[in-house]
Amino acid sequence: MLNIISLGLFDKKDISVKGLEICKKSDKLYLEKYTNYFDSDAKELSIFFGKEVNEVKRTDLENNSRKIIEEAKKEDVCVLVPGDCFSATTHISLLIEAKKEGVKVNIIHGSSVLTAVGETGLSLYNFGKITTIPFNNKNIVSPIEVLKNNQKLGMHTLFLLDVRDEKYMTINEGLKYLLDKGVSEDNFCVGCAGLGSENKEIKSGKIKELIKHKFNAYPQCLVIPGKLHFNEEEALSLFNFK
Q1: How far is it, in rounded angstroms, from Cα 49 to Cα 43?
Q2: What pLDDT is attached to residue 167?
Q3: Host H or E run for residue 180
């Protein structure tokens, strides 16, 4: 059997009880950390589960997944994914390939930034299309196009920040990108850092205020709100710069 298990938002303790029990019983455990930040590494998870966890690279799952699929035909195999396993589309190909090969697949969902961002007080129902600000973004305009389309509908825009080779884009880098692409420094924005951790930080204010603040916790993301309900306005006021 192939188990695709969500680890949750921040560290090893965010995994569900169901996911933990499956990991302890499985024959092989693989960890991928290229899609998101996760505070626990393979060594720490090995101690936590009481069995070896091997970290895999993007190519292992995207181009060489055959090895894992073949193992799952004979053994219980877990692929461990930070956040929720299907918040991104990266692992859909693994699911499809396993199904085509007749391998039974078990999915365990978990907490994700896509829902944790509700801690800002912004209603999840009022978010429009989600976009990611990538590294090497000089000629990239799609995040701005998403923002403009969401704003036409009065919807909030969640900007995920790029991850590459365990390098994580910061809120400040994301804000600089927005400014470089013509977004006004007086635009109201919300910065979220380390959601799910004890050191989480949420700040709201104009871009020119947020960009001066250093967010230290990870993972990080940005929201530019659309039309606000009075309950949302009240909630966001709790995070304003004083």
Answers
A1: 10
A2: 86
A3: helix 171-180
Q: Given this model, what pLDDT does residue 19 score? A: 96
CATH 3.30.950.10 assigned to 114-237: yes
Q: What is the DSSP string of 47-63?
A: HHHTS-EEEE-HHHHHT
Residues contacting residue 222 through CB under 8 Å, at least 6 positions apart: 133, 158, 159, 161, 171, 174, 175, 178, 189, 190, 191, 192
pLDDT at 241: 72
Angle between helices 17-25 and 42-49 (to 10 degrees): 90
Q: What is the CATH number of domain 2-111?
A: 3.40.1010.10
Q: In what order do the strands lie in the sheet with 105-108?
A: 53-56, 28-32, 77-82, 2-8, 105-108
Return the closest-CA partner of residue 162 out of 188, 194, 136: 136
Domain ranges of the chain: 2-111, 114-237
How far apart (Å, rounded) are the C-alpha atoms in residues 51 and 25? 9
Token pair recorded at residue 144? 């701005």
Instruction: Note the pLDDT of residue 231.
Output: 94
Structure-derived torsion over alpha carbons of residues 125, 92, 44, 13, reported in degrees to the nearest 10: 30
**How confident is the model at residue 242, as a pLDDT?**
61
Instruction: Tell me how far apart the alpha carbons of residues 46 and 39 are, in angstroms, rounded to a whole number.
Output: 14
* Residue type at 177 in one-letter notation: Y
C-alpha span between 119 and 111 (Å, rounded)? 13
Question: Which regions in the chain score pLDDT beneath 70?
Answer: 242
User: What's the rounded Cα separation, in Å, for the pair 53 and 202?
Assistant: 33
* Three-class SS state of 153: coil
